[in-house]
Amino acid sequence: MKTETLLKKYVIVAAGSLLLGMGIGFADLAALGTDPFTVFLTGTYRRVGVSLGTMNLIINFMQIVMAFMVRRDTVSAATVIAMIGTSAGIDLPGLIGIPVLPLPAGALWLVSGLMLYSLGIALTQIPKCGYSPYDAYIFSLIKLFPCEYHVMRWITDLIFVVTGWLLGGTVGIGTIVFLIFTGRLVEIILDFLEK
């Protein structure tokens, strides 16, 4: 693969990761609950006694190792780019001064967050040069338990929500919205972009 072509693919992954992170940031500003993985991280880091960022790195590393063992083609430099881009995107809405909005206006941030999150995930998948740690994990599970992407996403997200909640993470209506709609929205956006 030409260096220029690979560079373009990595730029798409970086942009998608940034949007994915911004989606989490907007959902956080809605104060209605975040995505399932963030619920898990929140519950876990409080129990383990490390920072949220450190816990994110630990869990991401575990996902990468598991994905690499099952399906190596899902892990690449794009996986690292995705980790960095997502982390930067999470803080971006707050840094640029987007305010926290109470209901009903907060629902606007929630919907915006869901759309940015789903679009970001789809963009990171399009280049097919590796995936974010979470998607690398999901695609490795699909290899072990063949099913459609949205089905595996629902199962994995539900496990993260329940585990995170049991560990003390906060679950809100936004979490349920992300849980129900993310997998299918990613498939719809991917189908649209690939056409």
Key traits:
195 residues; mainly alpha; single chain; 8 helices
Describe this structure in words.
The protein is about 75% helix and about 0% strand. The chain contains eight helices and no strands. With about 200 residues, the chain is an all-alpha fold. The longest helix has 28 residues, at about 5-30. The protein starts with a helix and ends with a helix. It has one domain (about 5-195). The model has no long low-confidence stretch (mean pLDDT about 90). The protein is globular.
At a glance:
With 195 residues, the chain is an all-alpha fold. It has one domain.
Compute the separation of the termini in Å. 23 Å
Oligomer: single chain
Order of helices and strands: HHHHHHHH
The profile of the biggest β sheet is: none
Q: Which spans of ≥5 residues are poorly predicted at pLDDT below 50?
A: none
Q: Indicate the radius of gyration in whole angstroms.
A: 16 Å
> Number of domains in the coordinates?
1
Helical coverage, percent range: over 70%
Question: What is the β-strand count?
Answer: 0
User: What coarse outline follows from CA principal-axis ratios?
Assistant: globular
Give the averaged pLDDT, no decimals: 88
Beta-sheet strand percentage?
under 5%
Helices, by number, come to: 8
Based on helices, strands and strand pairing, what is the structural class?
mainly alpha
Secondary structure layout:
Blueprint: H1 3-30, H2 36-48, H3 52-70, H4 77-95, H5 106-125, H6 133-144, H7 149-166, H8 173-194
Helix pairs in contact: 1-4, 1-5, 2-3, 2-7, 3-6, 5-8, 6-7, 7-8
